[in-house]
Amino acid sequence: MRTATARTSLAALGCAALALSACTAGADADDGASQTTLSVFAAASLTESFEEIGADFETEHEGVTVEFNFAGSSTLASQINQGAPADVFASADEANMDTVVESGSAENAETFALNQLVIAVPEGNPGGVTGLGDLQGLKVAACAPEVPCGTTAQAVIDAAGGQVTPATYEADVRATLAKLTLGEVDAALVYRTDTLAAADEVDGIEFDEASKAVNAYPIAALTNAPNADLAREFTEYVHSDAAQSVLSGAGFEQP
Amino acid sequence: MSTVGIRTRPRARARRRVPAALLLPALIGLAFLTLPLVGLLIRAPWTDMPARLAEPEVLAALRLSLVTATAATALSLVLGVPIAWLLARSDFPGRRVVRALITVPLVLPPVVGGVALLLVFGRNGIVGSWLDETFGITIPFTSAAVVLAMTFVSMPFLIVSVEGALRGANEGYEEAAATLGADRWTVFWRVTLPMIAPGVAAGAVLCWARALGEFGATITFAGNFPGRTQTMPLAVYLALQSDLEAAIVLSLILLTVSVVVLASLRERWTAAP
């Protein structure tokens, strides 16, 4: 985001300089002034990786600024369906992308990343947790079933036989992790990407049942995109090797 | 815009002219406060309401909200009225600092308040770890945590109202009672408290209403567990993540119930002599 704003102010400076020179030189002032802003609505869990991908995309496309709106996928989906002027939508689950496709705001969405749940435990794993079975009798935080990570968590718990009852169902995945970093719970069911983002405080324990409910992240260029061609280019770029390596560095898996 | 005559209380029979300088901003303010409610009412899928009310989760959240908000108001009365009395009637060093400290929960974002409560009453908190080791009690994720979170954010409203009432009350009656031999507790209980009863009641209503709407501190400190810590505002917020209409219905249920409770209380008060 910082690079984006820096670029915007640079661009503003450029424009001001151009305007000045236009007074004296007149005609040939249009050179390089065509700035395009691509507006990408992306799930909050993509924040770090998409900022990096966006910066790379800007380097490859001169005169393009990528602007991000990071929020919960359901919030973004309703903003888009209410007519927000967005070019690209990247959702953390298929259900929210489906509502956007059903409303006609997008046509074909493609999955570009997968995210799995892990059991987050305090660094060093003091409780010796190795799987879901070890969570019985421990205080566990999970997401509420109303949000994507909670749907996944419930599916995973059911797949394991349903013996785990969380002490709290949090409103989003970062709040769930916060309950662990504050020491109020012994374990939390969060995405692998979240444990990597907080690697100095928590460990992520992989477990078998996680593969039963993998979250797919779909991306789509929107039908009413102000910059339709660029939007398509961005969704293609997210599938490129460069972008995929950024994503896997953050803990996502390739579809 | 010309001024409009409006009827004042029946006792003051003469019609008074309301200055446009007051009426205009008042009307704009009123529209600003009520239009969002109108928006909710327009969007509300009214036919869904009875079905929603029959859902056990909604009933549990509503019951929990009413019980915890009432408990938080009771706790605020027991602790807050004495604080207000100290602020208004006694002169101790650092009174200004205490008054400033009391308003801290008013300006603190409730989520921060929730984190602060965790740092004190949480499992690893200053008081919480002692409670855990000595009695095996952990507060977070219990209904008691909901009450504490509500009390933290809503008690200042009660204190401010009651202190205002105390400052407005005539101290002459208290002095007279004291001259006639009443001790300070008797003066407080038999003279001061009855005198400021309307102020205490107004403060309690404000406190109850704020507690009922509490969200940030509750979800942070008490978490969200249906039937135990999921109050109506939490249920509304989570419904909003998947179903806007459901969220609106839930908010209207909370709104209707609180208005009915407040209106019936008001009737009881005004019926009293």
UniProtKB/TrEMBL annotation, chain A:
Coiled coil: none
Gene Ontology CC: one annotated term: plasma membrane
Protein's GO biological process: molybdate ion transport
One Gene Ontology term of the molecular function aspect: metal ion binding
The entry's keywords: Cell membrane, Membrane, Metal-binding, Molybdenum, Signal, Transport, Tungsten
Major place of residence: membrane
Signal peptide start and end residues: 1-27
Binding site for molybdate: S45, S73, V173, Y191
Domain of life: Bacteria
Membrane topology: Lipid-anchor
Subcellular location: Cell membrane
Job of this protein: Involved in the transport of molybdenum into the cell. Part of the binding-protein-dependent transport system ModABCD.
Subunit note: The complex is composed of two ATP-binding proteins (ModC), two transmembrane proteins (ModB) and a solute-binding protein (ModA).
PANTHER family given in the database record: MOLYBDATE-BINDING PERIPLASMIC PROTEIN, SULFATE-BINDING PROTEIN
Recorded family membership: Belongs to the bacterial solute-binding protein ModA family.
Protein name per its UniProtKB record: Molybdate-binding protein ModA
Source species: Glycomyces buryatensis
This protein's encoding gene: modA
From TrEMBL, chain B:
Residues of the ABC transmembrane type-1 domain: 62-263
CDD domains: TM_PBP2
Entry membrane topology: Multi-pass membrane protein
InterPro entries cross-referenced by the UniProt entry: MetI-like, MetI-like_sf, ModB_ABC, NifC_ABC_porter, Sulph_transpt2
GO cellular component: plasma membrane
Domain of life (superkingdom): Bacteria
Compartments where found: Cell membrane; Membrane
Keywords annotated in UniProt: Cell membrane, Membrane, Molybdenum, Sulfate transport, Transmembrane, Transmembrane helix, Transport
Transmembrane regions: 21-42, 62-88, 100-121, 141-166, 187-211, 246-265
Molecular function GO terms recorded: ABC-type sulfate transporter activity; molybdate ion transmembrane transporter activity
Function, in words: Part of the binding-protein-dependent transport system for molybdenum; probably responsible for the translocation of the substrate across the membrane.
Family that this chain belongs to: Belongs to the binding-protein-dependent transport system permease family. CysTW subfamily.
Binding partners and assembly: The complex is composed of two ATP-binding proteins (CysA), two transmembrane proteins (CysT and CysW) and a solute-binding protein (CysP).
The protein's name: Molybdenum transport system permease
Origin organism lineage: Bacteria, Bacillati, Actinomycetota, Actinomycetes, Glycomycetales
Gene: modB
